[in-house]
Amino acid sequence: MDGLYSKSYFLMLVILTGLVSGLGAILLYTLIDLANTFFLENLGNLYLPSAYGEVKIFSFELPLPSVPYFILPAVGGLISGLIVYSFAPEAEGHGTDAVIRAFHREKGIIRPRVPIVKAIATAFTIGSGGSAGREGPVAQIGAGFGSAIAQVLNLTDRERRLLLVSGIAGGIGGIFRSPLGGALFAVEVLYRRDTETEGLIYAFISSIISYLVLTAYLFQFHHEMPGSIFRTPDVRITGFGDVILFAITGVACAVVAVVYVKTFYFVHDTFKKFRIKNWLKPTIGGLITGIIAIAAPQTLGMGYGFVQLALNNKLALEVILLIIVGKILATSFTVASGGSGGVFAPSIVIGSMVGALIGHLAGVLFPGHSVVPSAFVIVGMGAFISAVAKTPITSIIMVLEMSGGYQLLPAIMTASAISYILSGDVSIYREQVETRADSPAHRRELVKDILEGLTVRDAMTKAEEVITVSPNNSLEDVLYLIQKTGHLGFPVTEDGRLVGIITLSDITRIPDEKRSELKVEDVMNRSVISVTPDENLENALKILIKNDIGRLPVVEEGRLVGIITRSDIMKAHARELARLGI
């Protein structure tokens, strides 16, 4: 397929991916709410606060014996571990790294069973009180559906990767009710210093469709459902002094982000060393999370309700500090131990608390200051995500869509840029690569682009440096040249015109006793495969590979003007890379 039909066909697949991603987001949202109602509310008798825009689907009471809530994360970790390591081990952890790895290193292939396994395991992890989020799982679910569609239809690697990106966008855009942020996340999260621009339009389409699907579903349970997850008081920037305080928030977020990532991967690497069954590791992680929750129950679950309380300026300073420390530790033990859940939602909570902390301190140090603490909460969210996930544009847009605090756009931009730069290469997503040039998925494309920009003339060995033979030379003359030079073949020219080519294999087909009687013209191959000097190197390389030959004569108007080998092409490519500074 090509042309308009091909584009229309692929567009329909992107729309289908967005639709299925939206249904996957509905499944995950519903399962988490069901598990939360059963475990924390019924068994643990613990009711955590909700964000203004979070929709409650289930509300029931069962005649069950009460269980200490701090035991429940271990139970959820056990069930999650058994499900994941029995059916799809790649579904362990936060999921986003697995998707990034599939894009860069596995041709966009994700096993079809992964989305279902991920949804169920995540519901048990978060619903039982594990400190995790929905972003990684829903990204893996959406990407898994996109990859599955591509595999069923036997699409190309490139198309499969684009549907994978569309699936990420659909999942994120729907679950966070952030269609623009979801699309940007999908193309930005793959790299630390780059974006997958080719997939941006498809990500937009998939994200908005998934968003519409999920909001239509949630509308059935909340007929006045707000458009954003958080309700934000009236906030605005009043002067240059505000900008300085927001810049300080960016610095603080960078510092805490580095601590968070290093703590997370210290726990992750420690658990990898444990010589026990893998399914037991999330149980141990859940048990430690429960112990942390004895002192800080605010760390259980996703924690969006406490972000809402911070926005409403209803959290004491000691609670803010407790959530920052507790959430870092609880998330590390919940997810880095192998539990199924995302790290984006905890990042939102931690970042909001860092912002709330700076807001409280600003209020103490500058009692007459006019900026309300809510502004710092929103700015902290954006700055922290920018540093942790290396998605500066996404962090700005998504936080604005989730909170509705559009008046703070300059403040979030300032803090996010500062935190992104100061945090360096530290990222919660280890599978990210620096740029498209560093991605195995694009390495061949990069080579192709460079070779298409170079001509054979740029790389060939010129005719005056090429050893040729005459049609009248004897075969012994050719054998002597082969022995002397190490070359296995030579162009045959007559008055500068290429008339054939002779190789060692041509000669070895002739019996020894007849070789002295024959000349080059009797043995040479007259059907010569050649290229012109203006041919690009990409086509020349394809000819060499297709015909399984090592060299090509370069001919212009019948005359031999040079010869080109695979080695010549490699050297030209390396020179161009050096010139471009790649």
Descriptive account of the structure:
- Helix 14 (373-389) runs parallel beside helix 16 (409-422).
- A hairpin with a 2-residue loop joins strand 2 (489-494) and strand 3 (497-503).
- With 582 residues, the protein is mainly α.
- The chain has 24 helices and 5 strands.
- The longest helix has 41 residues, at 3-43.
- The chain has a 3-stranded antiparallel beta sheet with strand order 1-5-4. The chain has a two-stranded antiparallel sheet with strand order 2-3.
- The chain folds into 2 domains: 3-444, Clc chloride channel (Orthogonal Bundle), CATH 1.10.3080; 453-580, CBS-domain (Roll), CATH 3.10.580.10.
- It has helices spanning 3-43, 72-87, 96-105, 114-127, 135-152, 157-175, 179-188, 200-219, 240-273, 281-295, 304-311, 317-335, 344-365, 373-389, 392-403, 409-422, 440-452, 456-459, 475-485, 504-508, 512-515, 520-523, 537-547, 566-580, and strands at residues 461-462, 489-494, 497-503, 551-556, 559-565.
